[in-house]
Amino acid sequence: MIEFEVVERDGLARLGRFGTPHGVIQTPALLPVIHPDPDRQVVPPTEMRSRWGISAVITSSYIVWRTPSLRAAAERDGIHGLLRFDGPIMTDSGAFQQHAYGSVEVGAEEILAFQNRIRTDIATVLDLFTEPTASHDEAQRSLETTLERASAARSARAELLAVPVQGGLFPDLRATAAASASKWADVLAVGGVVPLFEQYRFRELADALAAARPGLDPGRPVHLFGTGHPMTFAFAALWGIDLFDSSAYHKFARRGALLFPEGTVPIDELREPVCRCALCAEVPLTAVAALPGPERERRIAVHNLATSCEEIARVRQAIREGTLWELAERRACAHPALRAGLNEAKRHASVFLPTEPESRRAFREITSESRHRPAVARFRQRLDVYRQDLPLPERISRIPLRPEFLGRVPTQDRAGRPISWQADTPLGPVPLELTELYPVGPYLGLAEFDEPAARPSPASVSRELAERATFDAELDRDWTDAWTRRQVEGLLRWEYGAVTASALAPGVVGARSRASGRLRDIQEDGRPLFVVGRDGRARPTYFGATRLLPLLTEGRSTVMVDDDAAPFVAAGRSLFCRFVVAVDGQLAPGSSALLVDRSEALLGVGRLLLAPHEIPRFARGVAVWVTSHARRPVPQEEVVPDGPASDSVPDRE
């Protein structure tokens, strides 16, 4: 079975890797579709590997099987010898030809046995392609046949196996297909969607992915058949798609069409050198249009492939930075159909929330629809809980305020009754003490730059308070210290609930940055208990964890570590999935957690890479990065070659 590991992530999207007999595939990965006949393959696979570093490709085992000369060569030299490619090769089984031509003349057992004989790295089950026009009964019958074939294929193949996830446009069938395929697959391949891509039916594609995604085993890489246009890569990656196949680079070249992340441009309509990449600097696209047919087709295909590789790299970088939603929104602006698909994705927030990180470095508004990202849905859910725990104040007022105006705003009236201020933010009213939290604090939108003269100043805030006040308070007093206390209490309540916050708050104080005025950390006796980052979250130090742990209910905010890994975690090593005993199900990727041994003694503090429900599904890789620890040295007798510290994922302090 496959050993897939995640090394970085942004929600469902992840940077991962898994091994094959011919090398490691780093995901997300572009697998160009290769025609097995060299005379019909416009860009040789060897050039793809040497020129763009493409590590894996996909080809049709059915075309090889039905072509006698190719079949003989593949059975003699293997599929790698036929394609002259020494990296991982995935083979499709003929389902697409069934969609294109109506039928194929090979059986599921026969084509799988052929894939075994030609030594493909990832073989694919011959599924029944379900057309979007199929009725529920037709789609269900096709699915049942596909799943029967998948079960038989698992018994007939020990190496990596891709199982298609069909079900047409019916959510119940997609969900069944996802859960069933996960029992047998090394690679989960969402199929039956090529017509949706071809007809720009991205809204229906979003519905199909939303139905399938929760049932797909998170410990398996996911392939989406037909994601050939670079305009769609970011959209697909949002759903956790790891493998993208593309025949579009050549198909569009045959019709004289150039691929760009912003859309498609007929080369004959170009009058300006719109691309200045190394390829197009060599021969401008305006000159390529005038070349003889074969050379013109080849150069367009090369441009399209280079553009596709570049966009995959952008997707990977966006995952590293936590900006994939921003990239997807920018790409969606290229076509209304894609924008409709992305809006439909946001309506399925529940699919994204289990893996939605607690925070990112920034929240940049691309359009007004940015306010409907899953990050906002998560924040609003947490805000509802926060407000339930908050005792109702005597008075509530709402005026536009900014955190830097805290010294002008009273927290209570002269009778000592609390005044709760709600700040007007792009995401709606938010308690003022929480306005540094992600996504509100690092929110960057149009309001930051539109009509700057209308922004309030401290003096204007004071005047407005005086004019609109319906309470008796000391408006000329500096309230900064009082707001610091309220913010400390608010952040602790946000993270750990009212009971724990009440127990911690009396003995702690907040320290603000002299440069920005933002809360920097929360201290006790001059020692930091919590550090407040750019995302506004209060994250415990090891000292803070020692104070916090006794106050938490059993299992709250903790990850329990197996005895074999406990010494390594206490010394600051990353915690790997196979050594996690239990984890608080309320945590999320990016959450700070207290790492404890089986006796619930504190080992350290870490940040989750994986969601709690994902950790048991991974055989290898990091579950939690340790950020502070007990600094105990690892006993030398416990350092063994196959111990927790020898996992292939590097540690992160």
Description:
The chain has 653 residues and is an alpha/beta fold. α7 packs across α9 and α11 packs antiparallel against α14. The longest helix has 29 residues. β10, α10 and β11 form a beta-alpha-beta unit. The strands form 7 sheets. The protein has an 8-stranded parallel beta sheet with strand order 6-5-4-11-10-9-8-7. Strands 24-28-27-26-23-25 form a 6-stranded mixed beta sheet. The radius of gyration is 28 Å and the shape is globular. The chain has 3 domains: 347 residues, Queuine tRNA-ribosyltransferase-like (TIM Barrel); 60 residues, Roll (Nuclear Transport Factor 2, Chain: A), CATH 3.10.450; 94 residues, PUA domain (Archaeosine Trna-guanine Transglycosylase, Chain: A, domain 4, Roll). The C terminus is likely disordered. Helix content is 36%, strand content 20%. The chain contains 22 helices and 28 strands.
Low-confidence stretches: 639-653
Mean pLDDT: 91
CATH homologous superfamily heading of the largest domain: Queuine tRNA-ribosyltransferase-like
Structural class: alpha/beta
- Based on CA inertia axes, which overall geometry fits? globular
Shape-level CATH architecture of the largest domain: Alpha-Beta Barrel
**Helix count from the secondary structure assignment:** 22
For the biggest β-sheet, the strand order reads 6-5-4-11-10-9-8-7
What portion of the residues fall into strands of 2 or more residues? 15-25%
> Roughly what percent helix?
25-40%
| Count of discrete domains | 3
| Biggest sheet statistics | 8 strands, parallel
Could you tell me the CATH topology label of the largest domain: TIM Barrel
Give the distance, in angstroms, between the N- and C-terminal Cα atoms. Answer: 31 Å
CA gyration radius, whole angstroms = 28 Å
Task: Give a count of the beta strands, DSSP E runs of length 2 or more.
Answer: 28
What is the class of the largest domain in the CATH system? Alpha Beta
